[in-house]
């Protein structure tokens, strides 16, 4: 592969039975038409599998569009493709071992305007373990307001939720989605990225009436030469 176009996969693998979010069911991934049963429809040696998936839309590494939070917000089909691709991006590293509460102080004096801001906490190390679901790192309302006022394009995090889930309010979702700023949660591999010099991609399918969906989130490193 062209080394000037290095791709880094930032998505978890979605598997049958693997819970992403505590309290929501795991996906059921199975055959609708198995290879064995398909044989009768085709000539000898020709077979197919047609899969069937039953899942909540908040599964795996997913993107939130405004409709997730707001009835009249844009759903997956209404957000323009340009908001999902080739976003000039950067990583801000705030290890969960240092703090779980990410405030505007962590975001100041960094060039974030018009960029996708990815926050690496390292929480993805607990993916697919009980520890992942509770006491996760999160942004404060003040951090969300700072990001909104800085006109960022998208905010991503490698945590279970970008909000503090201990209470009933979700101010980060409220502030960001209320300003049409997309959110990507359950990212991974952010440690493989440089601090800047890459673009971010996270494209969902084009469903009507759905605000959140799994994405194959990835980064494409820029040509530095
Ligand atoms: Zn969310």
Topology, element by element:
Layout: E1 7-9, E2 28-33, H1 35-38, E3 50-54, E4 62-64, E5 87-93, E6 101-102, E7 116-120, E8 138-139, H2 141-149, E9 154-157, H3 171-178, E10 182-185, E11 196-201, E12 212-214, E13 218-221
Parallel strand pairs: 5-7, 6-8, 7-9, 9-10
Antiparallel strand pairs: 1-13, 2-3, 4-10, 4-12, 5-11, 11-13
Helix pairs in contact: 2-3
The chain binds zinc ion.
Could you explain how this protein is built, in words?
- About 10% of the residues lie in helices and about 25% in strands.
- The strands form 3 sheets. Strands 1-13-11-5-7-9-10-4-12 form a 9-stranded mixed beta sheet, with helices on one face.
- It contains 3 helices and 13 strands.
- α3 links the parallel β9 and β10.
- The two termini are about 15 Å apart.
- The longest helix has 9 residues.
- The chain is mainly β.
- α2 packs parallel to α3.
- The model has no long low-confidence stretch (mean pLDDT about 95).
- Bound molecules: zinc ion.
- The site of zinc ion (ZN) has 5 residues, from β10.
- The site of zinc ion has 5 residues, from β10.
Task: Summarize the helix and strand pattern as letters.
Answer: EEHEEEEEEHEHEEEE
Classify the helix fraction into a percent range: under 10%
Strand order of the largest sheet: 1-13-11-5-7-9-10-4-12
Q: How many DSSP E strands?
A: 13
Quote the beta fraction. 15-25%
Shape: globular
Q: Spell out which ligands are present.
A: zinc ion
Classify the oligomer: single chain
Biggest sheet, open or closed, and with what strands and sense?
Answer: 9 strands, mixed
Question: In angstroms, what is the radius of gyration?
Answer: 19 Å
Distance between the termini: 16 Å
Tally of separate helices = 3
Structural class: mainly beta
């Amino acid at each position: 592969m062209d080394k000037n176009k290095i791709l880094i996969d930032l998505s978890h693998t979605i598997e049958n039975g693997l819970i992403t979010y505590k309290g929501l069911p795991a996906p059921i991934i199975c055959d609708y038409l198995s290879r064995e049963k398909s044989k009768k429809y085709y000539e000898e040696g020709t077979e197919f599998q047609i899969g069937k998936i039953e899942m909540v839309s908040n599964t795996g590494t997913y993107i939130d569009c405004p409709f997730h939070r707001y009835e009249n917000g844009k759903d997956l089909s209404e957000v323009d493709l340009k908001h999902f691709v080739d976003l000039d991006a950067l990583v801000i590293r705030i290890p969960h071992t240092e703090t779980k509460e990410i405030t505007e102080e962590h975001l100041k004096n960094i060039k974030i305007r018009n960029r996708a801001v990815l926050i690496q906490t390292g929480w993805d190390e607990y993916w697919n373990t009980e520890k992942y679901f509770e006491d996760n790192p999160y942004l404060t309302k003040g951090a969300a307001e700072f990001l909104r006022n800085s006109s960022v394009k998208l905010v991503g995090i490698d945590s279970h939720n970008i909000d503090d889930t201990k209470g009933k309010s979700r101010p980060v979702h409220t502030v960001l989605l209320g300003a049409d700023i997309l959110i990507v949660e359950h990212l991974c591999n952010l440690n493989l990225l440089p601090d800047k010099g890459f673009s971010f991609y996270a494209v969902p399918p084009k469903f009507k009436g759905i605000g959140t969906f799994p994405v194959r989130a990835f980064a494409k490193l820029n040509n530095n030469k």
